[in-house]
Write a structure and sequence with these properties.
Layout: E1 6-8, E2 20-27, H1 33-42, E3 56-62, E4 68-70, E5 72-74, H2 76-86, H3 89-99, H4 102-119, E6 127-131, H5 137-144, E7 148-152, H6 156-164, E8 168-169, E9 180-186, H7 195-204, E10 206-215, H8 222-228, E11 251-252, H9 255-264, E12 267-270, H10 274-279, H11 287-303, E13 308-313
Parallel strand pairs: 6-7, 6-9, 7-8, 9-10
Antiparallel strand pairs: 1-5, 2-3, 3-4, 4-11, 10-13, 12-13
The structure holds zinc ion.
Zinc ion binds at residues 12, 14-15, 17, 62, 64-65, 67.
Length: 317
């Protein structure tokens, strides 16, 4: 019997290849997936098991770009229910209020300064856009620097909050009316049903010399995690399956999957020079932090170990 709430993906959502191999398959409404979901959503809001009936958690690996993607994904109705009701907006807001300390905002400021120095323009001459802005914190920081700051978001609660803070929220269809110098996507592309088409659309809103950031979860030991399939491993731990979390993290990118997707969309990777990254690092509060600061630009630009990438239009060459 077909499920009421799932869509089936017939090709790789990043590169459109139709050849992939199945690496894992279990019904959503049976252990271990059901138990994982109950545990995960109970603390974040609620879960309604009826939505899971006849759906299967299937992990596919694309033969071409090696993206690991979930084959059955929530349809629009289920997505909305999941992000607006299972994940309780009030609880999420409280979670951020409690946990986002000074270092959190410092990180936003640092990133924005690194991007600005790369763009070589005065902040007031820049238009920034945060795609999937959440509560709009990043956009507020960009605004504080004097940028013309925009964002978009699906969640009504979050849009209301962002607008109450003076941010400009724009609609998906109106995006090509804008020419942004920088488009930020932070932990967004792993959630998207159609990441390639989304990237193509975002590119239309990019100024000729503009840049776009794609930042998604990194797990360099993903193959080991997928061999162990330990659903009890805690989020953030070495064997955690959070990078392929059922229903939400429906795309897991290897670095080359992102590069191939971007290449197909006419985008080319750029690196923010190491010197400019060091110049705007803000937090030197202890030995551990100093070590991390010193290593990070090397890890990004030379070792290329992080799923944290910047692109510009290929046609700009
Ligand atoms: Zn692919």
């Amino acid at each position: 019997m077909n499920s009421l709430y799932f869509n089936i993906r017939k090709k790789c959502p990043a590169c459109a290849s139709t050849t992939s191999k199945t690496i894992y398959k279990q019904p959503f409404d049976q252990p271990p997936i059901r138990d994982y979901l109950i545990d995960f959503y109970s603390s974040r809001g609620r879960i309604e098991l009826s939505y899971l009936e006849n759906g299967n958690y299937i992990l596919e690996e694309c033969d071409h770009c090696k993206l690991i993607f979930q084959k059955e994904i929530p349809n629009d109705q289920f997505m909305e229910r999941l992000y607006e009701y299972w994940l309780d907006p009030q609880k999420r807001f409280e979670h951020h209020r409690k946990n986002d300390g000074l270092d959190h905002y410092l990180y936003y400021a640092q990133e924005i300064m690194q991007v600005m120095t790369y763009l070589k323009k005065q902040p007031v001459d820049l238009k920034f856009f945060d795609f999937g802005m959440g509560w709009g914190k990043w956009s507020m920081m960009a605004k504080a620097f004097g940028c013309d700051s925009y964002g978009s978001e699906l969640s009504r609660e979050r849009i209301k909050y962002a607008e109450s803070n003076g941010l400009k929220v724009i609609e998906w269809n109106n995006l090509p009316d804008y020419q942004f110098n920088f488009i930020n996507t932070e932990q967004v592309f792993e959630h998207l049903a159609e990441p390639f088409e989304t990237l193509e659309h975002l590119k239309r809103a990019l100024a000729p010399d503009g840049i776009i950031k794609i930042s998604v979860p990194t797990a360099n030991n993903i193959d080991q995690r997928l061999r162990l399939m330990n659903w009890k491993a805690k989020k953030g731990s070495k064997h955690s399956l959070n990078p392929v979390a059922p229903l939400e993290h429906i795309n897991f990118y290897r670095r080359k999957s992102i590069i191939k997707m971007a290449d197909k969309a006419g985008l080319k990777e750029i690196l923010i020079p190491i010197r400019k990254q060091y110049q705007y690092m803000c937090d030197w509060s202890g030995i551990k932090r100093i070590g991390q600061n010193l290593l990070k630009p090397i890890s990004l630009n030379l070792l290329k170990k992080q799923n944290y990438l910047f692109f510009r239009k290929t046609s700009f060459d």
